[in-house]
Amino acid sequence: MKKTLIAIASGLLFSTLFYNQNLGINILLFAIIAITTVFMIHKKARRPEVYINAGLYLAASFFVFSVNSTLSIITSIVTFIIFSGSISGFKNSVYAQWFNGIYQLMVGAIHQLTSKKEKITSTKKYNLGFIIGTIALVVTILIIFIALYGSVNPILGSWLSKIDLSFFSLSWVITTVMGYLLVNNLLSIAECDILTNVDRNAPTLLKARKIDDHIEQKIAKEQLLGSVLMIALNVLILLFIALDMSYVLSNPLSDAVTLSKTVHEGVTALIASIVIAITIILILFRGNLNFYKKSKKLRKLTYAWIFLNIAIILLTAYKNYVYSDGFGLTYKRIGVFIYLALCISGMVTTYFKIAKKHNFLFMIQANTRIAFIIMIVISSFSWDRTITKQNLNQVAHPDIPYLLSMSDNTADLLYAFAKANPEKATNQSYIDTEYERRLQRLSNQSWQEKTLQGMLNSKITSNEIQNSQI
Question: Which bin fits 20, alpha (ψ -120 to 50), beta or left (φ > 0)?
């Protein structure tokens, strides 16, 4: 009964927050409601793992309020699904929690009702859910028959025509029902048993197998082959690093075309080389070689190769930084930094895979968790504003048309720049129009749609108006 009342109240709050509203502070408020109700209803969910996912979900929802970018909205939805999946699957990996969260949010209540394991604790013949469902069914059928009889009987039809139902909104009802079903499924613990059990019970450590003379000879050959290969690859990568260092120290900004090609095309080749490097290491250390006593030399060579690969990644990141600092930030150049961060995480987890004798599943679980954290971190930035600020303040001749192609979240920055630098600002009239349009949109926002940046812009604008009147 308590859960039903909370679900109904949450459904009404859901429609209040989201019906005919854009996304803003309403997502943050819903996150607070969802997290609070889950911990109120399910004491078993009060575990460190679930608290962590709840904190990540709350942070991602706050970024929708503070940043309000498409990425922050997507991240908030993803973290909500993972938080939902962690309620029952707190011991699972991120991707299992994702699938489990989708399953719970779609059919959680149905799963709980049909589960044979659910214990009946109530001795009451009727519960609140049954009463509400019965009333809704009876009212719906009555409305249908009244409409049918009204079309046949003119007197009844005239009475019905005088009833004003303009206050009634079917879309509002649908939104409320959606909110109720969403929260009701969230509060009904359910998991996709096959997926969660397989993921939960899957080992991440390799097991030593019994080695006879024939297998030991085979392992010795693999160890020798691996050592020769790693020596050759380490020599090659040291030569590459030396040449790359000489290029970095030779003022790469003097040749923008070469620098651009080195960064953008080089990243594709780098990622391919990292994938090949990790694949080679996984093949070498796929089984008994991990427990071979004479593989110490091969391990050291492999560790050296991993750290040298990380050095190349850092060099590429520096070249991308030099390029971005000299010619301005773009989303593609920011994407390069993100790709390089993922490459480093892949190399680090490969090191731990060898050092701790983990299997491939460990790498999947670790890297999906890292990618999830990176997604949350990058969603905390307003990249439109970061790019605009960087390019307007640091670049001698900023690409104004490129900056204008972004969202109107940067309208105030471009407007201020145009006023301070009229000789550099092209499309002055367009900048003024976009700025006025943004102010108009902010003034028409409801409280559910408010964002932190919009509130700051509104405050600055009101102060400017007061100062001009003085």
Answer: left
